Amino acid sequence: MASNRSSVVQSAPGQNPKPANPSDLQQFFSLALNNPQSQTLDIYVKGVEIKNAQVSGFFDNVSGQLAGGQWDVVWGPQVFSNPNNKDDLEADNALYVAHNATLDMWVVAIAATNMSSAYDWEDEDFAVRKMVNFPFDPTKALEVVSPDASVAQVTQGTALGVSILLSQMPDPKTGDSLGTFLTNLIANDVATSASNLIFTGHSLAGALSPTTALLLQPALAAAGWKNIYVLPTAGATPGNAVFVDQFTSTFKPTAATVVAPSIAQASGNIVTTLNQLYWNQDDVVPRAWTQLSSYLTYTPGKVVGHYNIAPNNELIELLFGAGLKVALTTAQSWGTSSNLQQLTNNTAFSAHFPVTYWDGRTTSWAEYTPPAEIFGVEGLLDIIAQVHIGQYFQPFNLAVKAYAPPLPTTKTPNDFEKLIALLKRLFGLGIAQHEAANA
Q1: Which of 1, 61, 77, 403 could form a disulfide with 113 if both were Cys (CB 3.0 to 4.6 A apart)?
Q2: With contact defined as beta carbons under 8 Å apart, do 281 and 350 qualify?
Q3: Are 296 and 306 in contact (CB under 8 A)?
Q4: Which stretches of sequence are listed as region Disordered (predicted)?
């Protein structure tokens, strides 16, 4: 559910680092997407002020490699940061719309979980034991109810995330909500009924993107949109079986060649169908909340079966064998109690190591292969993160090094300590015992 989206905020030159605020986050996000002049900022990264940080604009670096050529950000980007947590403002949700004139295509891109955001983890990712009837009005307070298998429902966390995207994240320039912007594209003859609209996102957004698309679909269809699609990856289960049936009947699997017939399928790209969830079979996140208990095979000396790694001492074996197994079984029980069901339209793929990734701690490209033995919580999280993030370049056959990181010269620490504390609070894994043993 996590991404490496950091909470980076601007700090005025010569001043002490100031607390994060959404406008600073939005400004950084905007430059990280489009920054043709290679503008630099004085920024504040995890408590450290950095002068003249170079910000690399994504579309400025890779448009020549993208289908259709030049893509332009036409709405947003916008960032939401929970206003009730003023001491630790993080980028809890982020969103933008990009357009390609050659393909007559509009893409709604929704961000994944910010690994540093307790709000994302607790209020959006893990809030699955209460439900919200679907459809719901995102502009009104959510009516949280008990699970009911007879009506369409989505998890409380999914409903909250979608509500934030549609009602609390207006375009910074025009003030238009995402829904208003998309309907006005056709009303103002900017788009036509032949235009293509795709909702996409990874992890948390792998649940938010299909739910957002289904919630907006009636209004968008009424406005004249005929070609609406979704492309979620690594998404957890957003709703129950009735919701899944609604989604499946509305968004039928469609070959990508139908949407963009002029684009040849890249060699090695297995993502050939839209309206389909793509997920790594070794990834724990898309197994939430229906396939978690089978994810970890606990046998002495071989704790995490999917990764074929062994503990290096008995305490770690106890923690990751018995403790993690209990945690995953508990989490699946939440999904069972809420009648959750994975999207029927889904494709599982297998990936491989090594994984090439950008290491913000060293500001350099690195390769990762799982160790033969696991030595601690951070070691396990390293593996999970690479499977959940790094291996998802493979099904698209994307060259990772072609995509410049947003902060190519700025060192950024990892957030594993904060994540470990969150998981400890959520599941009570007994991590304190492990930490004490390795102190």
Answers
A1: 1
A2: yes
A3: yes
A4: 1-23
Separation CA 33–CA 24 (nearest Å): 15
Structure tokens belonging to residue 388: 């959940």
Q: Smallest Cα–Cα separation from 200: which of 235, 167, 166, 170?
A: 235
> How many alpha carbons fall within 13 Å on the CB side of residue 140?
6
Identify any residues that bridge with 113 across adjacent strands, giving them in sequence order.
2
Segment among 45-49, 59-63, 286-290, 399-403 with least mean pLDDT: 45-49
Q: What is the pLDDT of residues 343-399, one digit of tens each?
A: 999 999 999 999 999 888 888 999 999 887 766 667 777 888 899 999 999 998 888
Position 3 confidence tier, pLDDT thresholds 50, 70, 90: very low
pLDDT-above-70 percentage for the chain: 78
Q: Per residue in 120-178, pLDDT tens?
A: 988 999 999 999 999 999 999 999 999 999 999 999 999 999 999 999 999 999 999 99
CA dihedral 20, 409, 98, 170 (to 10 degrees): 10
Which CATH number is 16's domain given?
A: 3.40.50.1820
Between CA 252 and CA 300 the distance in angstroms is: 44
Q: How many CB atoms lie within 10 A of CB 152?
A: 21
DSSP character for 390?
G
Please choose, from the candidates 191, 235, 228, the residue with its C-alpha nearest in 3D space to the C-alpha of residue 213. Answer: 228
Pair of tokens at residue 238 = 């957003």
Provide the sign of the torsion angle of the four alpha carbons 128, 3, 75, 52, taken in this order: positive
- pTM value? 0.90
Q: How many domains does the chain have?
A: 1
Contacts 24+ apart (CB under 8 A), 97-100: 97/73, 97/178, 97/181, 97/182, 98/59, 98/71, 98/72, 98/73, 98/74, 99/71, 99/72, 99/74, 100/66, 100/67, 100/68, 100/69, 100/70, 100/71, 100/72
